[in-house]
Amino acid sequence: MKLPSRWPAWLSRERLAELPAKIAGRFPRLPEDIRLPLPERVRKAMPVFMRTTTFKLALLYSLMIAAFSGALLAYLYYSTVYYIRVESERRITVEFEQLANAYYTGGMERLSQSVFERMTLSGSPFYYYLEDTSGRKIAGHFPRLPDDPPEAGMKTVYFDFELPQPDGSKTLRPAAGRIVRLRDNGGALMVAFDTAQQTVIVDRIQSAILVAAPVALILSLFGGLLITRGAARRAEELAKTAEAVIGGELSRRVPVRGTGDEFDRLAQRINAMLDQIGKLVEASQNTGNAIAHDLRSPLTRLRNRLEIALAKPMTEEAASATLGETVEEVDRVLDTFNAILRLARLDAGTEGLRVRMDLSEVAEELAELFDPACEEGGLSFRSQITRNQLVLGDRELIGQAISNLIDNAIKYTPQGGSISLSVTRGPETMIDLTVLDTGPGIPEVDRPKVIERFHRLDSARTQPGSGLGLSLVQSVAELHGGALILADGNGPKNCPGLRATLRLPRA
Q1: What pLDDT is attached to residue 53?
Q2: % of the chain residues with pLDDT over 70
Q3: I need a surface site. Which of 3, 9, 196, 461 has the fewest CB within 10 A?
């Protein structure tokens, strides 16, 4: 007696397939016009908070929790149903095996006796029906078979039967049974069991799922809103800070709570960006003021010189001298503007092509170039250059920076002084290019100021220049990941000299 693989009626796939529809029926149906695929219309009709990232994250969180809960409930449902089905099939299989053993050992008589004995057992969940070859009932709980027996093998049937009650009434009960054609005499045997209890269990599980599913969805949505509430507040702080900065409050900063989370790291970076923007704005304002101050004098001199030339006749020699001085003044103004333009390009990162280069070669070339100029100015010049000092940088920009350092030393070193240029290994993976002079030096308190654009010390006002030389060196150093270091030289306290070091990373 082999059991079929079919599910009983009360555990049928059709019954299980009805569960999603029952769940969906618990939710109200939306009007058809709202359910139409009109994303733009729906989006405009949505409240503002439903368009926020916070709500979307909360909704996503709730959907994920709901999906997990649904999967868990479905697993519990199907595993319970499967266990009930397997257990029922096992019990009925055992029952058929015992009856088959009685039939094989004692024939129809022994089978009939066994059926009668089992019918008299109290509390048994099974019901029986036995008929002979002619279809006459031998024993059983039912007046007749619910279906015709198969010609051979086993047949599964599902039916309802009337169960008598103590008060004389009858109750309709669902049942599932299996009918087998008896070998040898052609009779039929049916063993059935009451499925009412199993149906109740399945219905209770369905009801629990129908209640748990919407509750899980609501709770997950509420939990998602609580979780994303903090993120919404932090995002609002960022938005308010941005609005304040747009409104002109450049001193406004994003609060940092010290939690070390992503918002704190983002706030720190935004604050650093705002600090840099503030410095750039301040530098731009100072640059404008410095340009107006430093260019006013040469332009005024140019105008006065030209007015004098136009006011009275001039000899050819005087006119030539006036034009020569005018050209020199114009050249100085153009040099200032070129320096400003180069600094702007360095700040924008549009200047500089980095290649692997030998810093010692550039230093040797500039030493040969400036040696005659120092000799002409009554200065001694010496160099001490270590070869094969490789850096990754722009040759032209680095050469310009070195030229500015040497030119600055020549400009402020008195006659009879000395200037030295050296290229040596610096600390760790750095290379130091140092220009040392015997001039008056720069006081320590003024060193941060002299690298500011257009800033000139009072002692330097008598010297030609724009106040951009050391600023350009500083920008070139920062562009290459290095630094400009200013320190006292080896001279006495009243005239220590200046040690200017351009420190660049080794390639």
Answers
A1: 66
A2: 79
A3: 461
Cβ distance 405 to 502 under 8 Å? Answer: yes
Residue 239: inside a domain: no
Phi, psi of 358 (to 5 degrees): -95, 110
**What pLDDT shows up at residue 2?**
38
Stretch 428-440: mean pLDDT, rounded? Answer: 93
Q: pLDDT by residue (tens digit) across 386-406?
A: 998 999 988 888 988 999 899
Between β-strands 418-425 and 380-385, what pairing exists: parallel, antiparallel or unpaired? parallel
Backbone angles phi, psi at 124, to 5 degrees: -75, 135
pLDDT for the residue numbered 487: 93
Q: Is residue 333 predicted with pLDDT exceeding 70?
A: yes
Contact 444, 355 (CB under 8 A): no
Contact partners, residue 230, CB within 8 Å, separation at least 6: none
Last residue of a domain, one of 167, 201, 235: 201
Q: Who contacts 245 (Cβ-Cβ below 8 Å, separation ≥6)?
A: 252, 274
pLDDT confidence of 498, banded at 50, 70, 90?
very high
Domain range for 438:
355-505
- How does the average pLDDT of the chain come out, rounded? 79
In a domain, 294, yes or no: no
CB 163 within 8 A of CB 170: yes
Phi-psi region of 258 (alpha: psi -120 to 50; beta: other; left: phi over 0): left
Residue with tokens 């024939």: 107
> What mean pLDDT is predicted for residues 212-234?
74
Q: How many domains does the chain have?
A: 2
More confident: 346 or 432: 432
List strand residue ranges (DSSP E) for 241-394, in order: 355-358, 380-385, 390-393
Round to whole Å and give the CA distance between 415 and 402: 21
Cβ neighbourhood burial of 348 (10 Å; 0-12, 13-18, 19+): exposed
DSSP category for residue 147: S
23 pLDDT above the threshold of 50: no
Tally: H helices and E strands in the chain: 11, 12
Computed on alpha carbons and rounded to an integer, the radius of gyration of the chain in Å comes to 50
* 339 occurs within a structural domain: no
CATH of the domain at 158: 3.30.450
How are beta strands 170-181 and 188-194 bridged, if at all?
A: antiparallel
- pLDDT at residue 32 above 50? no
Last residue of a domain, one of 174, 201, 228: 201
